[in-house]
Specification:
232 residues; four-stranded antiparallel beta sheet; 31% helix
Length: 232
């Protein structure tokens, strides 16, 4: 019975991801994005075991692995080395009750490249699901642009993305508001959300072509964060 439940949950998640992917790619066809190169993207590394960690992280686990920021940084550096991603570096690490979130940027452009998670119940690092998987046009699951491309122009700029995020947070009225900085990725922006006291609460992403919002609901409660590389 337990195995059947796992199979059903896995099937539902895969169906939802497929539908979301279709919903995202169709509007992009009208914004000048060529709908080719489907399947695993050229810069995207997602192993079969990562799916198990994704399910565990989504549905929670009582068991946790004690990790600190230095250990998460080491895990990330090892991940980059093993996957030949030498042009990427860590920008920030955020700790939540469910996982650690790692933001990676390109060394030569400072553009957001990938978002990773470390599952607290296993200590395993893997690509974040959501926008990083479905909207990332260079390092995502359905990449459209070559790895050699070092810039991207999106119809929605940073200011508009912040405005969209602010209106969305005001509309859903959760007590959080959108932050005042948007991290640009290849296809979308990721923005911190804040409490009424101005403290970090979580994050959401805004699609740079459609304006679609994707709130990162899988992190849990925010605990702390560190910036690894100062870009100034």
């Amino acid at each position: 019975m337990r195995n059947l439940r796992k199979i059903l949950i896995s099937s539902i998640i895969l169906i939802v991801i497929g539908i979301l992917g279709l919903a995202v790619t169709l509007p992009m066809a009208g914004r000048g994005i060529t709908l080719t190169n489907f399947g695993t993207g050229q810069g995207y590394i997602f192993n079969s075991e990562d799916m198990n960690h994704m399910f565990r992280n989504l549905f929670g686990s009582r068991e946790t692995v004690n990790l600190d920021f230095n250990e998460v940084e080491s895990l990330t550096e090892k991940y980059l080395d093993e996957n030949n991603l030498s042009n990427l570096e860590i920008s920030e690490i955020m700790e939540f009750s469910q996982n650690f979130y790692i933001e990676l940027i390109e060394k030569d452009t400072a553009i957001g490249a990938m978002e990773l998670l470390v599952d607290k119940s296993s200590g395993v690092i893997f690509p974040e699901y959501g926008p990083n998987m479905m909207w990332n046009l260079k390092y995502g699951m359905h990449s459209r642009i070559p790895l050699s491309q070092s810039s991207i122009d999106m119809p929605i700029d940073e200011d508009e993305a912040l405005d969209i995020a602010g209106k969305y947070m005001a509309k859903i009225n959760t007590g959080e508001s959108a932050g005042n900085e948007a991290e640009k990725f290849y296809g979308y922006y990721t923005i911190h959300t804040e409490t009424e006291n101005g403290e970090v609460a979580g994050m959401l992403s805004v699609n740079g072509y459609t304006g679609q919002i994707w709130y990162h609901s899988w992190h849990g409660i925010f605990i702390d964060m560190v910036e690894i590389n100062n870009r100034d």
